[in-house]
């Protein structure tokens, strides 16, 4: 498992509602703020790629693991 502390600050920025998970909606909002307007379908596909436990959201551990693959 990747070191979550290296990615915690970035994760917290994306986790807009501060529930400890990143949803497709939060990802879509982030991308729009960055100037990249993606569809809900695309956001959902990205979340599914990172979501190793299948709950439909990205946890900090899943985010760190994905980012560490770089």
TrEMBL record:
Q: Does the keyword Repeat apply?
A: yes
What name does UniProt use for this protein? Answer: EF-hand domain-containing protein
Q: Which Pfam families match?
A: EF-hand_7
* Annotated PANTHER family: CALCIUM BINDING PROTEIN
Domain EF-hand, first and last residues per copy: 2-37, 38-70
Q: Which UniProt keyword terms apply here?
A: Calcium, Repeat
Q: What organism does the UniProt record list as the source?
A: Actinoallomurus oryzae
In terms of SUPFAM superfamilies, this protein maps to: EF-hand (SSF47473)
